Amino acid sequence: MDEKQPKRGGEPRRITDLGTLKALGHPLRLRVYGTLRVSGPSTASQLASQVDEAVSLVSYHLRKLAEHGLIEEADVQSEDARERWWQAAQDNLSFRHEDFKDTPEGAATHAAVVRSLIAYRREQYETYLAQQEAWGAEWRIAADQSDFLARLNPAELKRLNAEIHALVKTYEEQGKAAEAAGDTEGRENVAVHLASFPFRL
């Protein structure tokens, strides 16, 4: 594995080796990694509280994620210098079927990790549905759950995805810039999930 991993805030990292994909694919590691992306630097004890697991178990999975450059040590955020702080090593990860299709193990691992991600995203949405009354009318009106049907060829689908990604990235950067300028009122974490795929009846 390349020793020079992109740092948080840099270019997205594309996972192409099976070991790293397996390391990420464990359901608890997905939750820990996702929590670090959202919450920022955290200790094992803080993460254990957020994912409702034992500190020793979370520490073990943090080490596994770190071995593959998925997370990295962060600057100490408290007065206790003995505490070990962790952060996601990059803002975005990607992995594609094409990089793992040549072996049965690779194809099976890729499919399993994608299914784990779908389950994790479904859990996020189910949590919102269970709590939506508490969010208030403004957030309920702003939130969306839609699906679309288009007749496209592969090139058009690829271009559509690229344009959607670029648009979401624009809003991500605008939000970061606004918060850096002190405009924090009313801002919350917002999950945008996209799945686009061909199908036949």
From TrEMBL:
Pfam family, one: HTH_20
UniProt keyword list: DNA-binding, Transcription, Transcription regulation
InterPro entries recorded: ArsR-like_HTH, HTH_ArsR_DNA-bd_dom, HTH_MetalResp_TranReg, WH-like_DNA-bd_sf, WH_DNA-bd_sf
Stretches assigned to the HTH arsR-type domain: 19-109
Keyword Ribosomal protein among record annotations: no
PANTHER family linked: REGULATORY PROTEIN ARSR, TRANSCRIPTIONAL REGULATOR, ARSR FAMILY
Protein name: ArsR/SmtB family transcription factor
